[in-house]
Amino acid sequence: MVPWLAFDDPFPPVERALGASSGAPGLLAASADLLPARLIDAYGRGIFPWYSDGQPVLWWSPDPRMVLVPAEFKVSHSLRKTLKHVVRDPLWEVRVDDDFPAVMRACAQTPREGQRGTWITADIVDAYTSLHRQGKAHSVETWFNGVRVGGLYGVSFGRMFFGESMFAHRTDASKIALAALVGHLRRNEIEMIDCQQNTSHLASLGGREIARRAFVAHLRKAVAEPPISWRFDKSVLAGLIDTPAR
Questions:
Q1: Is residue 113 scored above 90 in pLDDT?
Q2: How many other CB atoms are found less than 10 A from the CB of residue 224?
Q3: Which one, 34, 124, 130, 132, has the greatest CB density within 10 A?
Q4: Which residues are paired to 209 by β-bridges?
């Protein structure tokens, strides 16, 4: 039985999440509220919300957990060629937090293979925008000729980044944003990006699964560290361009 959380109820331990043999592996709890304080508490414990319109807020902590280690980011021959062009061409920009809610809305409106609709509801946009105003959520945006053509957003506490969603309106635009994020996190010696659940796209970029226990152990240390700066531009791509292709 998945517990229902009243307004001030704490989360149960993540070990109580439904297992692989259930119909919803990783499901931990449900609630009616999606307040910023609840979100902050959730991320600090290795829990995230994922639900659709018409459902209660569903809270998840899967085992294993998909992560991307910045040092293991895969730069293919074609992506490296693209990044070189982006660095040289002044029409390409990488902006940070230019318009966080717009990035969320673009992610919500981007069709996903095998999905109908979106989990990025109006309540989700409001809640994460509140975190953004507190300096706890950020967008990395790819711009071409003055137009936002791709990007991503996520949550950042201490020395931990929790990736949420990406979009692209131009070939490789989301990969450029992700590469810029990885370059920035490498500069700041961030060891892990939370990717939540396994996808073939993330695996192709170097993502891999680790045990939830290992993820939570790293998380507890990382979120207790001082936050990093979130000022950077496309110059962070230079280090990735010099990385041997994989």
A1: no
A2: 12
A3: 124
A4: 66
- Which residues have CB under 8 Å from 207's CB, separation 6+? 66, 67, 68, 195, 198, 199
The arrangement of secondary structure in 66-241, i.e. its CATH architecture, is 3-Layer(aba) Sandwich (3.40)
Q: Which residue has the tokens 């280690």?
A: 69
Spatial distance between the Cα atoms of 79 and 178, rounded to a whole number of angstroms: 11
For strand 65-68 and strand 193-196, is the pairing parallel, antiparallel, or unpaired? antiparallel
Sign for the CA dihedral angle at 204, 210, 212, 214 comes to negative
Q: Is the pTM of this model over 0.90?
A: yes
- C-alpha span between 34 and 123 (Å, rounded): 8
Mean pLDDT across the chain: 94
Give the span between the Cα atoms of 242 and 232, in whole angstroms. 19
Window from 48-62, 71-85, 109-123 with minimum mean pLDDT: 109-123
Distances (CA, A) of 213 to 46, 63, 129, 193, 219: 10, 8, 30, 16, 10
> CATH 3.40.630.70 spans which residues of the chain?
66-241
Q: Pick the closest to residue 16 from 8, 7, 25 (CA basis).
A: 25
For the sheet with 4-5, list strands across it: 4-5, 27-31, 57-60, 48-49
- Please identify which residue in the block is written with the tokens 């959520």: 137
Give start-end residues of each CATH 3.30.70.3550 domain in the chain: 4-62
Nearest C-alpha neighbor of 47 from the set 55, 57, 39: 39
Q: Cα separation of 46 and 41, whole Å?
A: 9
How many Å apart are CA 196 and CA 119, to the nearest integer? 14
Question: How would CATH label the architecture of 4-62?
Answer: 2-Layer Sandwich (3.30)
